[in-house]
Amino acid sequence: MGQRHRQDEHTGAAGILRECYAENPSAAQRRSGTEVVRNYVPRVHAAITTATVVRASEIGETWNLSFWDGMIVAAAEQVSATELLTEDLHHGQIVAGVRIRNPFMAD
Length: 107
Description:
It is a single chain. Helices cover about 45% and strands about 15% of the residues. It contains four helices and five strands; from the N terminus they run E-H-H-E-H-H-E-E-E. The strands form two sheets. A three-stranded mixed β-sheet has the order 3-5-4, with helices on one face. A two-stranded parallel sheet has the order 1-2. It is globular and about 40 Å long. The relative contact order is 0.16.
């Protein structure tokens, strides 16, 4: 995400951390999710503000995305990211000036 950074310098978004925890239903998976969240918190550079929420709504409406996907794109846009790594959006699509790249697909 952002300009190309070394792996230990990448930018994260709070929404992605929330999903990491929320998508782990069992107690053991929640503990694992909590550890992942703790490890990534220092790398989060996008504070969620009311402006982020408004922008997420606009992005969702404009690009027909869910509110939560809009939040992730809005957070990426907020930190001037040019690329967002995710498998949840369409590979190669540009949303709000941010290129979507699925890290599991070849370019």
